[in-house]
Amino acid sequence: MAQSKHLDRNLFSRFPPSIYSIRKEGGGRWSSSWAKVSCVTGGRSLRTNSSIIAYTSPTIHTARYLYWSRGAPCFISNMSLLVFSCVILLSGALGVRAAQPIAPRQNLSDCERAAAVCRLHNGTVTATINFKRERVTAPVTVSGEISGLSQGLHGFHVHQYGDLSQGCVSAGPHFNPYGRNHGAPDVEERHVGDLGNIQAGADGVARFQIVDHQLRLCGPLSIMGRAIVVHAMQDDLGRGGNEESLKTGNAGARLGCCVIGQASL
């Protein structure tokens, strides 16, 4: 039977910097328990009684499982918060003896740094949009320059599909894996793809840099292969008082779009 115990703060001194940084940045909590776990580390498959260290965060939306064996950490998986919560329920409340990863296996080193690019050319609207994340726990920075726009604010979103076979229409709705209402980029209740507005000047050029905590460049919720769409009108951020506002922000027609692809670091 798994037994929960308080996680001593001194244990953090034994963690790798990338693990400790989650605690500092995430605003969440750590917990621990004892159970039989198994994973592969150093080319060997291990199965032993070890301490499971778990972290949950309302802002990072990811959680990481590791166990401590003979003074060395062994990562089991990196998974979405929803899936992680199910594992905690099973291994803690129900006393399941084996904590097995239930998310697709991911090499954490592949996710440590990531970059993507999106080249947009749709008639008069052109752009190069870059995406970058420096480490697993860091937000994604979206930066770029879009030209050929009318002066003012324009809705700017990640859409579900990278399908441009019928123009921007076939990119589908906003990327919304959690099934939430449309909202502003700085609130919890929003689509993952909700990046708010970009502003074009009198020259028709919008220059922007957006730092976002919900976008992912790897894993099951990655935006790789999806589409960026810039709209004709201002996004009302879900505050328009009608049903369409909670879906699209009443941002209007799709002026331009491009598929997000992996870029060299």
List keywords for this structure.
single chain; 265 residues; mainly beta; six-stranded mixed β-sheet; five-stranded antiparallel β-sheet; 3 helices; globular; SOD_Cu/Zn_BS; superoxide dismutase activity; copper; EC 1.15.1.1
Average residue-wise pLDDT? 72
Tell me about the largest β-sheet. Answer: 6 strands, mixed
Q: How many runs of DSSP E, i.e. beta strands?
A: 16
From the alpha carbons, calculate the radius of gyration and give it in angstroms: 21 Å
Family: Belongs to the Cu-Zn superoxide dismutase family.
Pfam families: Sod_Cu
Catalytic activity: 2 superoxide + 2 H(+) = H2O2 + O2
InterPro entries: SOD-like_Cu/Zn_dom_sf, SOD_Cu/Zn_/chaperone, SOD_Cu/Zn_BS, SOD_Cu_Zn_dom
